[in-house]
Amino acid sequence: MTPAPPLALTMGDPAGIGGEITLAAWARLRAAGPAFVVLDDPRRLAGLAAGLGWDVPIAEVGGPEEAAAVFADRLPVMTLRLPVPAVPGRPDPANAPAVLGAIERAVALAQSGRAGGVVTNPISKATLYRSGFAFPGHTEFLGALTGTSAPPVMLLASPMLRVVPVTIHVSLRRALDMLSTAEIVRTGLALAAGLREGFGIDAPRIAVAGLNPHAGEEGAMGDEEGVLVVPAIEALRARGVDAFGPLPPDTMFTARARAGYDAALCLYHDQALIPIKTLDMDGGVNVTLGLPIIRTSPDHGTAFGIAGQGVADPSSLVAALRLAAEMAARRTKEPAAP
Ligand SMILES: NC(=O)C1=CN([C@@H]2O[C@H](COP(=O)(O)OP(=O)(O)OC[C@H]3O[C@@H](n4cnc5c(N)ncnc54)[C@H](O)[C@@H]3O)[C@@H](O)[C@H]2O)C=CC1
Ligand SMILES: NCC(=O)COP(=O)(O)O
Asked: Which PANTHER family does the record match to this protein (predicted)?
C-alpha cells in the first residue's frame, strides 16, 4: 500500500483561531503524524507563535512533497501573503483573496495527487460575503472548484454520532420550502455511499428524522412526514439503502437510539448540528461527501471572541486531520471501481 501524501491545510480566516489551532495541532501530531502542510503567511504564524510564547519553528516549503521530511521538526508552510496584517478578532474582507486562494491551492494540490486531502480551517462567512464571495460556505465552493455534478453533502462525524442535514446554509423558512422527497433521497444515497467509501461501513443503517413534533403525530402536527419523508424512505429502501423512520427528532439522539443507526439523516442544519456539537464539540469533524477529493474540517467556527489568546482547543482540528488521513489511506488501499 502506497502511503498517502501529506494533507493540505488551509489558513481559514486569519483573524480567527485557525492559526493558533494549527500551531497546536502540529505540536500534537509532529511525532506520529499525519503530516500536513499549511497554506498561510509564515510571518503571521511566526508572529502568533512568538506572541503566545510557543516554540513552533516554521519551514517554508515548495509543496507537500517536502512537508513529510521536515514535519517532525518544523511546521511546513506553503507561503501565501496576506494583503493586510491580521488582527485577532477583527476580520477584514481585504484578506479574502488569501483566504480563498488557500482553499483553491489546497484543492489543486489534492486534485493533482500531491496532497492526500484538504483540511480547512474555519472561514468567516459574513466577512467573505462582504468581499463578494458568492457561495454559502466551503461545501458549496468546493463543489464548484471540483466541478461536481450534484451539490456536495455535509456530514458531521464524531465517535458518538454522525449526522447529515438535507438543507444546509439557508434560513429555516427557506429550508422548509426547499425540502422535497427527491432531495432527501439524493442526500440519503450520497450519505450511504460516503459511509461505505469513506468509513468502511458496508451496509449503513440510516435513521431519517421527522420534521415536526412527534414526527407529525399521524398528521395532526404536520403532514410533511407522510407527504415527503415516508416516500423518500421507501425510495431509499427500494435502492437498497437500510433507511428507516421518520423518527421523532426529540428522542432520536439519545444514547439508546444512537446505538441503532450509523448516521442520522436530518432535514435542516440545526436539527443535525445541535445534537453533535452538544455531544462532542471537540471530537466532531465536518466531512464533505460527493467530492472527487477528501475534505474535512473542524466542526467549530472562527471563534473571534477568543482568537489570539492561545486558549482555543485544537482537538477538533486534530480529529479532522486524523480522519482525512484515514480516509486517504482507505482510498489508497481500495481504489474506487472504474
Ligand atoms: N467550517 C467553517 O468554516 C465554519 C465556519 N463558521 C463560521 O465561524 C463564525 C463564527 O461562528 P459561531 O457560530 O460563533 O461559532 P464558533 O464555533 O466560532 O463559536 C461558538 C462558541 O464556541 C467557542 N469555540 C469555538 N471553537 C472553539 C475551540 N476550538 N476552542 C474553544 N472554544 C471554541 C467560541 O469561543 C464560541 O463561544 C461564523 O462566521 C461562521 O460562519 C462556523 C462553523 C464552521
Ligand atoms: N455550520 C457548519 C458550517 O458552517 C460549515 O460550513 P462549510 O464552510 O464547511 O460549508
From this structure: 4-HYDROXYTHREONINE-4-PHOSPHATE DEHYDROGENASE, D-THREONATE 4-PHOSPHATE DEHYDROGENASE
